[in-house]
Structures are given as structure tokens and as C-alpha cells.
Amino acid sequence: MGPLSPTRTMRLWGPRSLGVALGVFMTIGFALQLWGGPFQKRLPGLQLRQPLTPSPGSTVSSCLPRQRLVFLKTHKSGSSSVLNLLHRYGDQHGLRFALPARYQFGYPRLFQASRVKGYRPQGGGTKPPFHILCHHMRFNLKEVLQVMPSDSFFFSIVRDPAALARSAFSYYKSTSSAFRKAPSLAAFLANPRAFYRPGARGDHYARNLLWFDFGLPVPPEMKTKRGNPHLPRDPSLPQLNVLPSGSGPRAHHPLDPNAVFHPAPTVAGGHSQISSPSSLDLGSLSFIQWSLAWLDSVFDLVLVAEYFDESLVLLADALCWGLDDVVGFMHNAQAGGEQGRGAVSNGGLTAEDRQLTARARAWNHLDWALYVHFNHSLWARINQYGQSRLESAVAELRARREALAKHCLEGGEALDPKYITDRRFRPFQFGSGKVLGYVLRSGLSLADQEECERLATPELQYKDKLDAKQFPPTVSLPLKTSRILSP
Ligand SMILES: Nc1ncnc2c1ncn2[C@@H]1O[C@H](COP(=O)(O)OS(=O)(=O)O)[C@@H](OP(=O)(O)O)[C@H]1O
């Protein structure tokens, strides 16, 4: 084996070595950011497949589809919609999933390889290696590399922390002790310290959930300082506008990054601009910068929920997959949630909503740094890919989704769970809102029925299906026969 590249070396270093390596890695981190990282190179073209029912293998391809994938499934960020397409792809191509015994890998504890069903420590078994690792975990690179090859495609998804906070508050109202005590999200964010105790049950759901899921430690001073040093002095800050894909003013400037990021007060140039620098100290900034540089060295792509379709086109391109492989329906939306209300668009928000958004971003300032960073990376990739090329692919993707929805779904859209009587399609109901799901139209052809089922199956049921396929129940032999066969 040749010498390890700086990128590979950084992958192998865990974030827990932060204290020791900060100086060295900050330099590397900044350099990585300046160069755009080794993964920002131009990617091969996207292939489009037209038929309604995809026909695997029908694509004339100049690149080889990537089939070793690590997807960090972050919470409340659109990750179940991504999971559905991974489940479908792996299912249809006969790939092996690294599955948890139940539905998560020991979350909220850091991922451990021993949690993977059928995992044998290296050299300990003859089972073929896994292709896809994609269920909820707290990321832990060292252990992930025990299960997946280091040249797997690593990707994840982030969401605006304000939208994520709204979603998490409703979903984890009874799970997080901080949320449980708060009468509303507005009350919580007005004075989070009144409700939030670090280390209390489910507290990670209440603050910087993305940062936590990425396995990053909190900056040391956040653990020690009393009060909240990171709340902006003016609660109406920051002024970044984040628009959901396909709505609001984006209709006029569909892919203009300047429509996404309005100038915000920042300390430094570069990717990781923190919205309220006056309240952040240098140690904190270096820590965040280092962490982001580390993530850049590990993750090949980070999708952005607010630009979900644009992200999917880039994903298909990076993986050398067809567009049909990434077309899917939205999963895990809560009735009355962000998607239901159809808006994070600042234009459509009341003054109270805007204040809540600003407070949520400030309270979750590590997530906000992550989000801003990966939003910038996404737009850098979009520019590389070509905006008009991307616009056509996004239009194609949406047309395909609409056609599939009309063809497969009763009502052509997600429905209240009270209409979903078939347990195979009823999403797990949790939290204070209703989780929407799908009812299939009747009279579909056998092939379309199968395809529509795959698209509509919620994550837990799909995981069970893959589990049963990968670990078929062993047939127990009748007693007499087994006696004859045993030595
Ligand atoms: N395509 C797309 N684009 C934008 N947002 C999307 C998308 N798909 C799902 N969602 C929203 O993501 C929320 C669910 O996130 P997750 O699936 O990650 O949740 S979970 O952690 O697995 O429970 C949930 O948010 P809320 O409805 O606000 O709760 C979904 O509506």
C-alpha cells in the first residue's frame, strides 16, 4: 500500500483528536477549502432513462455506477426520502446493506461496527462485504471503516436549522426533556437555558442535532461557559435567506445563489461564515473551521434539503446513476410541517416567524455553520455542473416525479395516515404531528405495482423487507431428519 494522501489521513483521524491536531489540521483544512477539496472535480455526465418502469442496465454509460455507499442519515432533514431511493437501488441491484438489528445503530451512542447485522471482524468470515450503510447513526469514521471500504462514496444531507428545529420540536416533543418542558418552540427559543440541560435525556435533539449526528464534539468553551455566548445581540440576525427548492422568489431566479445568500455580517471570507461573529471567540471559530475541513475530507457530497432536487441531480451525476434512480416521493413529512406549509421563504413569514427562525439558527449555531458551509459547497458544485444544465435536469426530475405520483398514488400526493389502511405503507407514527404517507392506486399492472410499492414503502417497512431478503429465516428441519444429519 502506498503512502496515505492527506485526505485519507484526515479521514482516518477522528474528530476527538481535535485538541492535539488543531493547528496542523487548520492549515490543511484551509488549504482544502481554498482548493475546493479533492472531490470538487468535474463529474461525468448524467444519463437519463425515459421509460416509466426503469429497466436496469438499459443505460449507455461512460462511467461505472458507484455501488459502495455510506449515507449518514441525519435527523429531520429529509433523510428518509434519500433512504427510500437507496433502499430501492440496493433492492433492485441485489446489493448488501449493512443493517442495524432494529432500525438504528445504537443511536445516540457513536456508531460501532459490531452493531451491524452479520458483521465479522476483518478476516473473521467469508460473507461478501457490504455495499450500502445508510441507517440512523451517530457518525464514527473509524468504526464505519471497519464495515465499509474507505473508497466508498460518503454523503449526507443538511437542512436549515430553523426548519429542522420546527420539525424536531414537533417530532421529539416527548423524547427530549428540554422540549417536553417548553410550552412551544417560540417559548423554548426565547429562553432555551430555562429548559435545556446538557446531558439531560434527549438533549441532543434540542440543540445542534446535525453537528451531533456528524459525530463532532462540541467546542470546549460551550461546555464550560455559563449563559449563551452565541445568541446574537440583535435577535433578528442573521439575515441569510434560505428558500425552499421550487417555491417563492426562486420561481423568478430559479438557480441564483445570490437569491439564497444575502450578505450577512461575517468575520472572514471563505465557506464557513458564522452569522454573528461578534459573539464567537477565536477558539470556537478555529474549532468550527477545523471540523468543517475535516468533514470536507470525509464526505464526497452533502445534499441540502432546501435544494433537494438540485442535490439529487448532483448525486446521480456523482454516482453515475440514472435520473430515475434518484426520483422518489417525499417521506416522513409531518402534517402542518415545513413541507405542508410550503414555506421557509422569508417573504412569506410573519415577524414572529422571522424572529423564531433567527433564534433557532443562533441557538443551533454549530448547525448553522454546517449548513452555510455545505450550502456554499452545493452552489459551487452547481456552478461547476452548469446552471442551465442543472435546471433542465431538475425540470426532468420533477416531471418524472409528477408522472409517477399521478400514476402510482391515490390523490397523486401524500395523505393523512387515517387513509392508509395497508400496514405496508403506513408510516410509523411518532411525535405530536401526523406523519403522512401514501395509498397506491388500484388497477396497476404487476410491474408498475411493484415499482409504485417500492416508491411508497416507508423506511421501517422497507428495512424489514431488506432484512428478510438478506437474512432469510432458516428452515428448521424436522426432528428425525436433523438427527440423521447431525454428526
Ligand atoms: N424532499 C424533501 N425536501 C425537503 N424536506 C423534506 C424532503 N423530504 C422530507 N422532508 C422533510 O424532512 C423531515 C423528515 O426528515 P427525516 O426523514 O430526516 O426525519 S427522521 O429523522 O428520519 O425522522 C420532514 O420535515 P417536517 O415535515 O417539517 O417535519 C419532511 O417534510
From TrEMBL:
Its cofactor is Mn(2+). One of its GO terms (biological process) is glycolipid biosynthetic process. The keyword Transmembrane applies. Keywords: Glycoprotein, Golgi apparatus, Membrane, Signal-anchor, Transferase, Transmembrane, Transmembrane helix. Its main location: Golgi. Pathway: Protein modification; carbohydrate sulfation. Residues 223-273 are annotated as: Disordered. The chain crosses the membrane at residues 20-39. It is found in: Golgi apparatus, Golgi stack membrane. The keyword Ligase does not apply. GO terms for molecular function: galactosylceramide sulfotransferase activity. GO terms for cellular component: Golgi cisterna membrane. It is a single-pass type II membrane protein. Catalyzes the transfer of sulfate to beta-1,3-linked galactose residues in O-linked glycoproteins. Good substrates include asialofetuin, Gal-beta-1,3-GalNAc and Gal-beta-1,3 (GlcNAc-beta-1,6)GalNAc. PANTHER family: GALACTOSE-3-O-SULFOTRANSFERASE (PTHR14647), GALACTOSE-3-O-SULFOTRANSFERASE 4 (PTHR14647:SF57). Belongs to the galactose-3-O-sulfotransferase family. This is Galactose-3-O-sulfotransferase 4. It comes from Odobenus rosmarus divergens.
